[in-house]
Amino acid sequence: MSSKFPDHFLWGGAVAANQVEGAYQTDGKGLSTSDLQPQGIFGAITPRVDGDSGIKDVAIDFYHRYPQDIALFAEMGFKCLRISIAWTRIFPQGDEEAPNEAGLAFYDRLFDEMARYGIQPLVTLSHYEMPYGLVKQYGGWGNRKTIGFFEHYARTVFERYKHKVQHWLTFNEINMSLHAPFTGVGLAEDSSKSEIYQAIHHQLVASARAVKACHEIVPGGKIGNMLLGGILYPLSCKPEDVLETQRQNRDWLFFGDVQARGGYPAYMRRYFRENGIQVEITAEDQQALRETIDFISFSYYMSGCVTTDEAQNNTARTNILNMVPNPHLASSEWGWQIDPVGLRYLLNVLYDRYQKPLFIVENGLGAKDRVEADGSINDDYRINYLNDHLVQVAEAIDDGVEVMGYTSWGPIDLVSASKAEMSKRYGFIYVDRDDAGNGSLERRRKKSFYWYRDVIQSNGNSLKNKA
C-alpha cells in the first residue's frame, strides 16, 4: 500500500530556544521576557538578581550539546527540525543597531550541523520571548516602535541565514497573547483589552513586514504564521451554543484571517465596536497587512467544548484550562483532553478557510516517564497518542488537505512552557534532569524513539489504524 503522506513530507520535531538552550547569559545574550518567568508562562514575573537561578537558565543545555542532539534526531531520520532563534542572542536589548556576532555565529553552527545530516530548519523568529529591554524601555509591543525593532531583527537574520534556512515562522502561537499578555506582547497581565489588542495589532503589522522582508531577501524562502489550534465544539446542538462556539473559535481564527487574508475581518470590527475596544490602525498599517503568509502552521494538543449554560461554565472555571470538558474524551495526566479526530477536523477547517498549505508544527503528549531497572523507558502511552493523531493526519490528506509536514513537540525532553517543569516530558529522548534542576543531563532513547524512526522510514506506512 502506498503512503497517504506526500513523498517530500517534512517529518521531524520542534523545540524552542528558551526551553532547551540554557546558556541564558552566555556570549552576550541579553535578558528576555522568558528569563523573568521562572515558573512558566502563567507564573509570576520575577526580576533577576545576582546569584539567583531558574531551571531555564540551563534547561537541557542544548546550547553546548546540540551536536549530540542533532545526531540523535538524524538517527530517527528527521527531515526537518523546528527551532527558534533567541532574539536576545542577536539584539541583547532589542534596540541596538549592530547585532551581536557571537549570537549569530551560534545559529550558523547549529544550521551547519543540521545540514550535515540533511535536516531542514524551520525557524521561528519569536517563540514566547522578546528582549526585556524593549519592555522596560518602550513598553513592549504596546509601543509602535517595536515594529521597527522586530523588522530590523528579522532582516538581520534573513540576510545572515538566507542560504541556510528556507522555511520561517513569525510569532509562536500568536493568539496566546489574549491569555498571557506578558509572554505574548510584553504587557502587564491586568492590561485592558484595548491595550492588548493594540499590542497585538503592532505584532500583526510586524509579522506582515517580516513576510515582505523574507520574500525580498531569502531566495525561494517561504514564511508562515503560527497559531495555537484551539478548536472548540458546541457542547450541545442548541443554536445558542453553536453560535457561541463560532464566536469563540473566531477569537483565535482572527489571527489567521489577518495574516492569510490581508486585513481585519468584519466580525472583529463589530467585536471592537461593541466592547469599546479602541485600536489605532493607520492606512500604512492596512497596506502592510496585505503582504500575506505562504502557509499556515499551528499547534494542536486538544479540543474543547462551549456552552451558554453558566452553571457548567462556572464549574469549568475551577480547572486549570477553564474549558468545559467533552464527555466523550479521555484526558492526560495534566487534564488535557485527548482528541485525535479533532486534528483531522481542524486540518479541514483551516484548509477550507484559507486554501493554503498547512504545517503541524506542534503536537505531543506530556507525561511522567519511568526509567526501568534496565534503563529502558516504555512510553507506549506516547506511541499510542502520536500514532492515533498521525492516522488522522493521513485521513485529512486523503480528504484533500495539503499538509507540508509534522514536527512533534519536544522530540527531546525539555522545560515545559506552562509551568517550567521537566517532569512533564514529551520527548522520544529522555534527559536526566528533574524539576529542581538535578541530574546529569544524560540523553537516553525511549521506546518511542524507535517507533518514530520507523514511522519516518516508512513515510507513515507503519502507523496502525485502529478504526
Structural overview:
The protein has 467 residues and is an alpha/beta fold. It is 39% helix and 12% strand. It has 15 helices and twelve strands. It has helices at 17-20, 62-76, 87-90, 101-116, 132-138, 145-161, 181-185, 193-217, 239-261, 266-274, 283-288, 310-316, 340-354, 380-399, 447-457; strands spanning 10-14, 80-84, 120-126, 167-171, 222-228, 232-234, 295-299, 304-306, 358-362, 403-409, 429-431, 443-445. It has an eight-stranded parallel beta barrel, surrounded by five helices. Helix 6 runs parallel beside helix 8 and helix 13 (340-354) packs parallel to helix 14. The longest helix is centred in the middle third of the chain and has 25 residues, at 193-217. The protein is globular.
Task: Name some characteristics of this structure.
12% strand; globular; 467 residues; 8-stranded parallel beta barrel; alpha/beta; two-stranded parallel sheet; single chain
Question: In brief, what are we looking at here?
Answer:
By secondary structure, this protein is α/β, with parallel strands linked by helices.
